[in-house]
């Protein structure tokens, strides 16, 4: 079983919520607390995990709103609980469209019996431009990512006064990034954009806090390697490349993701639409079958 969530105060008003080691569906979240309102950044994968997060974020009795960095279920499945408690939920338009047609649990890929009530909210406020959220003292900037990256519809939450950036899954720390649903080239561009914030603390989507920004060059090197590994060859030896990736990033969790990522990289470098189902199947083969989730 995964370790207990880590609740880590970053400042008097900003808290990171880390579910380590950060593999499948063990995402990070956090919150910014104002005198009479709390803004949650992301929720969790299961009802029980999201309720626990909401309880940790809400001891002051403040009403809680949530901003979702993207549509993936580990970050978004608790949004219905936020709405049921009277809070608003915000996400990019693309993420909102995907979330409200969910929940998406991918039963052919994952085995999980503990989702609980993860019904999506009926309504999500869409973020289409940089949005300032005033919490009556502390404030936050919600910034849509300019291009497709980890998904089609990522956003980040930036706290300029504190130098804290909630990156969502644009940054994975010590966990293999998942590039199945976005654009690797767009993600690389987005890493440059993220570096421009000069944040002093990154809260990655998965894995431990990154106080020195070391994850940015690490994710960059990996994504660039994916593209370089398959560029110039029509029929790459995916198995050999996966073995190479597992050796190069041997300390990263969830190495079966290399199999999917390499196929997406091949599609991008050869300019054809990636077949997500084929890439997911390659990942399952690498994992030895459907992936059991102990959530
Ligand atoms: Zn994600």
UniProtKB/TrEMBL annotation:
Q: Which Pfam families match?
A: Lactamase_B
Upper lineage is: Bacteria, Bacillati, Actinomycetota, Actinomycetes, Actinomycetes incertae sedis
Record-linked Gene3D superfamilies: Ribonuclease Z/Hydroxyacylglutathione hydrolase-like (3.60.15.10)
The protein's matches in InterPro entries, at most eight in alphabetical order, are given as:
Metallo-B-lactamas, NDM-1-like, RibonucZ/Hydroxyglut_hydro
Give the protein's recorded name. Cyclase
Q: Which residues cross the membrane?
A: none
| Domain Metallo-beta-lactamase per the UniProt entry, residue ranges | 26-206
Q: Which PANTHER family match?
A: ACYL-COENZYME A THIOESTERASE MBLAC2 (PTHR42951:SF4), METALLO-BETA-LACTAMASE DOMAIN-CONTAINING (PTHR42951)
Q: Which domain of life is it from?
A: Bacteria
Q: Which CDD domains match?
A: metallo-hydrolase-like_MBL-fold (cd16282)
């Amino acid at each position: 079983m995964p370790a207990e969530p880590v609740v880590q105060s970053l400042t008097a008003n900003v808290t990171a919520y880390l579910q380590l080691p950060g593999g499948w569906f063990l995402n990070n979240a956090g919150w910014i607390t104002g005198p009479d309102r709390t803004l949650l950044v992301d929720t969790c994968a299961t009802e029980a995990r999201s309720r626990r997060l909401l309880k940790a974020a809400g001891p002051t009795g403040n009403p809680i709103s949530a901003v979702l960095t993207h549509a993936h279920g580990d970050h978004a499945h608790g949004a219905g609980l936020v709405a049921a408690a009277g809070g608003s939920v915000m996400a990019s338009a693309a993420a909102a469209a995907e979330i409200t047609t969910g929940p998406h649990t991918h039963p052919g890929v994952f085995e999980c019996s503990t989702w609980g009530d993860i019904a999506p909210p009926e309504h999500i406020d869409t973020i289409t431009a940089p949005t300032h959220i005033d919490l009556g003292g502390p404030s936050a900037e919600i910034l849509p990512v300019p291009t497709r990256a980890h998904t089609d519809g990522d956003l980040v939450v930036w706290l300029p006064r504190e130098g804290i950036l909630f990156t969502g899954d644009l940054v994975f720390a010590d966990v293999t990034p998942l590039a199945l649903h976005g654009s690797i080239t767009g993600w690389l561009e987005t890493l440059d954009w993220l570096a421009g914030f000069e944040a002093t603390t990154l809260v990655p989507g998965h894995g431990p806090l990154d106080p020195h920004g070391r994850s940015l060059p690490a994710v960059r090197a990996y994504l660039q390697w994916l593209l370089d590994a398959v560029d110039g060859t029509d029929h790459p030896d995916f198995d050999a490349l996966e073995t190479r990736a597992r050796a190069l990033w041997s300390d990263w969790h969830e190495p079966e993701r290399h199999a999917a990522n390499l196929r997406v990289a091949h599609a991008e470098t050869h300019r054809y639409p990636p077949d997500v189902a084929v890439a997911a199947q390659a990942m399952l083969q690498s994992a030895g079958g459907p992936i059991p989730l102990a959530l």
